[in-house]
Design a protein that fits this description.
With about 200 residues, the protein is α/β, with parallel strands linked by helices. The protein has one domain: Rossmann fold (3-Layer(aba) Sandwich). The chain contains 6 helices and 7 strands, in the order βαβαβαβαβαββα. A 7-stranded mixed sheet has the order 3-2-1-4-5-6-7, with helices on both faces. The chain is globular and about 50 Å long. The structure holds glycinamide ribonucleotide. Glycinamide ribonucleotide (GAR) binds next to α1, β5 and α6.
Length: about 200
């Protein structure tokens, strides 16, 4: 039997993408990975409740408890190493990760972003702001991207993308909902399985 890839999902908020991953695993579709830990930088994140409901261990590393980003990231690295984590999934994790963290887990961090990268991405583009920017620009097609994470915000290699058509009457909120339902919740779990499959192949090389 294969030893599945141990996954940590990093969250900051509502956790609908985490839920999509949990549901994908519960449906038996995450064949090469297992969600072993949900780590939040915010103790009040609803995503933690979703993890508890699914009986997944949780950890909180509160950014506010640390004087600087380096100490905050060192603590996250410690928790992730302690849990033997092999793949990190950023699912609505609203902190930009520094070079040391990215290098420690090089090619082992993936992120979901609510636009078609390279549009509407990089520092300052997160959550609803991404959809506000897309509507303000007048683009007719947007979508979501799953990509590897490096020290450049939203700058790593793309794994999967899915397009979503913009409607004339869309608001940032209606667009956010459709991009999640039609793109993010589909390509994030599929990408997780794809990367876990690749990581298992690397193990056996
Ligand atoms: C999602 O739309 C995700 O793509 C976005 O935040 C939302 C989190 O929702 N992430 C970013 O903007 C990262 N740059 P969720 O907590 O319900 O998954």
């Amino acid at each position: 039997m294969i030893q599945k890839i141990k996954i940590a999902v990093l969250v900051s908020g509502g956790g609908t993408n985490l839920q999509a991953l949990i549901d994908f695993e519960a449906a038996g579709k995450l064949k090469h990975g297992e969600i072993s830990l949900v780590l939040s930088n915010k103790p009040e994140a609803f995503a933690l409740k979703r993890a508890e409901n699914a009986h997944i261990p949780t950890a909180v590393v509160n950014r506010k408890d640390f004087a600087n980003r380096e100490d905050f990231e060192n603590e996250m690295i410690r928790v992730l190493e302690q849990n033997g984590i092999e793949l990190i999934i950023l699912a609505g994790f609203m902190c930009i990760l520094g070079e040391k963290f990215c290098k420690r887990f090089a090619d082992r961090i993936i992120n979901v972003h609510p636009s078609l990268i390279p549009s509407f991405c990089g520092a300052g583009y997160y959550g609803l702001h991404v959809h506000e920017a897309a509507l303000a620009y007048g683009v007719k097609v947007t979508g979501a991207t799953v990509h590897f994470v490096n020290e450049i915000p939203d700058g790593g290699k793309i794994i999967m993308q899915k397009a979503v058509k913009i409607r004339d009457d869309d608001t940032p909120e209606s667009l956010q909902k459709r991009v999640m339902a039609e793109a993010e919740w589909i390509i994030l779990p599929a990408s997780a399985e794809k990367v876990c499959t690749q990581l298992i192949k690397c193990r056996t090389k």
